Amino acid sequence: MLDSLLSFSRHHKMALLMVLDALLLPLALLSAVLLRLGGAWDPKLDPYLWIFAVPPLWVIPIFVKLGLYRAVIRFMDDRVVTTVFYGVTLAVLVLTAVIVMARITPFPRSSILIFWVFAMAYIGGSRFLLRGVLRNLDAGQRARAPVAIYGAGHAGLALMAALQSGRDMKPVAFFDDNPALWGRIYGGVEVYDPARIPELVARKRLTQMLLAIPSASRARHREIIEALEPLHVPIQRVPRLADLVSGEVRVEELKQVDIEDLLGRDPVPPKPELLSANIAGLAVMVTGAGGSIGSELCRQIVKGGPRRLVLFELSEYALYAIDQELARLAPDVERVAILGSVTDRARLTSVMRAFDIDTVYHAAAYKHVPLVEHNPVAGIVNNAFGTDTCAAAAADAGVATFVLISTDKAVRPTNVMGATKRLAELCLQARHAQQERSGGGATRFVMVRFGNVLGSSGSVVPLFKRQIAAGGPVTVTHPDITRYFMTIPEAAQLVLQAGAMGQGGDVFVLDMGEPVKIAELARRMIHLSGLEVRDAAHPDGDVEIRYSGLRPGEKLYEELLIGDGVLPTEHPRILRAREYHLAPDELAGYLERLAVACEALDAAAAFALMREVVREFNAAEATRDWVAGATA
């Protein structure tokens, strides 16, 4: 019978609730009168029995108007008490008016106040009773996973309420750093000392830990996650406070723990004057606008109030995607989407002149080390000659500032990709030196060098996530390989600020924090997924870490500097490097010979010239061009 009731339509359920209230309201009034009369009925009230049938006639319309019957019982919250309070109070006032106007003198006046109490209890209590029955039925039909919430503040309590009304998770414990909260009980859930987490994970068989501290710093998130990692309990988190305030997400929308919560640092707030110096009121162009770094630069740039933003991109789909995203993000900013290659000088010059470009951020590059290693000519043409061509176009068009996005792989490179980026730096340094020798030019050439960014296309973190989800193995090239990591938004902000500080020919390096051992990163990601690493010590583990050997041109350790020292800048995480450069005439000779080799698709000659011009290039033995190899 209960199942058939639950299968009723929404309108039928509303009608049943109205019938229930039509019975409970007369019962509440009768209970109030009998209580006031000491349990004995007064015969003088016999002519006025009709008064007990009157309350539903005006109370139910009041409840309808207040929306009481629109609330879904299963997901009803405590706000229903407010609705019932207003409805019952209005009902009592109307009842009082009826009794006074009808001159029902035998009716005990004090029973009206008692009726208010009984009506609140009957109407409100019936809702909560029904809600409890429905939730118990749900729990019986589908066992809910026991979970704990870390953080008993506003976000934690809101998360608890959301989960208690759901059908998947059952909050059974709170943990909080504040000792004043330990022992308190919210909604039947007790708050515990975080030191008891290992004990309660086992005793309550917790299946997940939910972090409900959206306003905590990234450093605090990292401390908590590192403490929880050995327990092998999956961790999810409530979105950050900025996302909650903006309305983009709700508190019950849990997310997987971002890897930046484990690796990242708390970002230094940007300096507004540096962030906007090359953007506010200016025409800005981003090459490679659809890439990981280029697209984030565009997102940051539109916040700075540019006069115009030109998106220059070779990939049609990538250009379409970032253009559509920016249309939603900043509809008031003028955008121009241009298809083109950074090796096309005429196209670049015409675009920069047509749109009166003030600042260029050059993010167009081939960056995947193994791919460029086996396609060296394409890498040289795009990364090195593409940068020089773009810089020449900027000088021709009178662009004020040209910023190259470089990489830590340009430092003592062991692969073609790193060598091409170092050659790109040398090209800009030579152009700056040539301008100085000729009495100065209109364009400042600035280079910004940093390491890996979290979440970029082809980066290791998304790869590890896919491998863990598939059950492994997680592939790491070498047990000792380490890398620097930074979030894409922080890297983009630092690039914009560094570009504003350059005087010309500057090489800036970003403070990337501490290097991370990739094998340890893989191990932590497996643990944070609630799984065990399968190795000699744990043969029954879930996911294996398999070492595949260093790829061609891959380093064990990345560096950020070629020289021996750096100079500080006005930003604590941006340093100015002191690097060597080649004389413009010397570099021009190398470039001329290199261009001939690339035009002839002579990979061997181009590779040999790269080793000459980039003096610190320690080329890998396994490097070879796929096409040349197949032809041979």
TrEMBL record:
Report the domain of life of the source organism. Answer: Bacteria
Name the Gene3D superfamilies on file. NAD(P)-binding Rossmann-like Domain
Q: Where is the Polysaccharide biosynthesis protein CapD-like domain?
A: 284-578
What keywords sit in the KW lines?
Membrane, Transmembrane, Transmembrane helix
Which parts of the chain span the membrane according to its record? 14-35, 47-68, 80-104, 110-130, 142-163
Pfam families recorded: CoA_binding_3, Polysacc_synt_2
InterPro entries in the record, alphabetically?
Answer: NAD(P)-bd_dom_sf, Polysac_CapD-like, Polysaccharide_Synthase-Rel, SAM-dependent_MTases_sf
Please give the family membership noted in the entry: Belongs to the polysaccharide synthase family.
State the name under which the record lists this protein.
Answer: Capsular biosynthesis protein
Species per Swiss-Prot/TrEMBL record: Crenobacter luteus
